[in-house]
Amino acid sequence: MKNIKQYILLIAVTFAFTACETEFDDPVYTSGSADLSSFVAVGNSLTAGFADAALYQEGQDNSFPKMLSTQFAMAGGGTSFVQPDVNSSIGIGSSGNSRSILGLSMDCLGETGLGPIDLAPFGDLTIFDPANAVGANGPFHNMGVPGAKSFHLVTPAFGAWGLGNPFYSRFASDPGTSTVIGDAVMASPTFFSLWIGNNDILGYATSGGSGNVGGTDVNDITDLPTFNGSIDAIIATMSGTGAGGVVANIPCITCIPFFTTIPYNGLELDAASAAGLTQAYMLLGLQFSEGANPFVIEDKASGLPRLIKDNEYILLSTPQDSLKCGGWGSTKAIPSQYIIDETEFTTINNYRMDYNAKLKSAADAAGLAFADISDFFFGVRDDGFTFNGNEMSIEFVSGGLFSLDGVHGSPRGYAAIANEMIKAINSHYNATIPLIDVNSKDGILFP
Hints:
Layout: H1 2-23, E1 39-43, H2 45-48, H3 57-61, H4 64-74, E2 100-106, E3 112-118, E4 142-144, H5 166-169, H6 180-185, E5 191-195, H7 199-206, H8 224-239, E6 244-248, H9 257-260, E7 267-269, H10 271-280, E8 291-293, E9 296-298, E10 305-307, E11 313-314, H11 320-324, E12 339-340, H12 342-365, E13 369-371, H13 373-383, E14 385-387, E15 390-392, H14 411-429
Parallel strand pairs: 1-4, 1-5, 5-6, 6-13
Antiparallel strand pairs: 2-3, 7-8, 9-10, 11-12, 14-15
């Protein structure tokens, strides 16, 4: 009888452990109604994996499309995702510069501090050598081109050597004849991501409003008919073969550290200095007090010095030594090309909202998923971002989400963006694609 009881107890315990084990079976991920067998990403530098002011190999390895492709494969998607790798740790930026790293440098006061410095005196110019072009290695699944605006994706001249964009020329199938979208469909996409439109306003913003509204130059804002027509053409081409996809929108510049790192009231004065500046600007009626004061800036319209408003922005590109030792912002007005004033911000934001409305309506009309990246970054700006207990923010360097150029993502930031796209895809296509462990990706690496 004792043996029977022990046997029954053994069966019960075994059953209990077996039941527990079934709870820990590997999860099953599915793509729902989406066909992820051939994924192609279309966009600009944010899609390419640009980071730290340059395109370099580690950045490409941590592009959000590359991360998406890994997650898609776990849900039955294709395992091939070909990128136009630069195979360079130095990389190259739009000004021929190298990537930035966090390092020590001495300022005009002789003080040594930690901040972004160039990894090398120059970028890796061999990347732009026609002899090293990689177009023959295509078709590529990552069709992100740094500097691309909406209309560039459908413009053949965009890839012409010497005349177009070398970031595209180096991997175009036929430079000067092919288009980014034409090359994208060569990979026979069954699913695509589209994140474009940022550069249609960003050049204007990062140049302090030095461009024109309605032009096509790098610092201009793209007019709405051109933008809308380009988006329609891009989506029609990409979805024309029945491909599904996800479209992302454009975040506000107030969510980007390039525009928010230098506070408008960063002019700290003692009582004597405040009195001296008030006297110096007496004819203009500028008043200063002990403590924090608004910086003095050049007014765009009049060219005269005035105090910056709390809804205006000083660019991260403002020379720091000029602020510390050159009297900029106090005895000398900060030049207007380093400022986004109230009028310029309104223009930028109005176009951004119009672009976003078009992106949403175009995605809806084509039956595509829509990732509200704008709303996500508003949330990060206002409340921070936490993943499995790890807190992040839009703060420059310390926040962990942005790279050292203050515009593009860190690997951790790109992972967070990829997750927002996965959430949108899962919801729209009834899929169960797993999220990325954001904490497993690097933020800013300290020396």
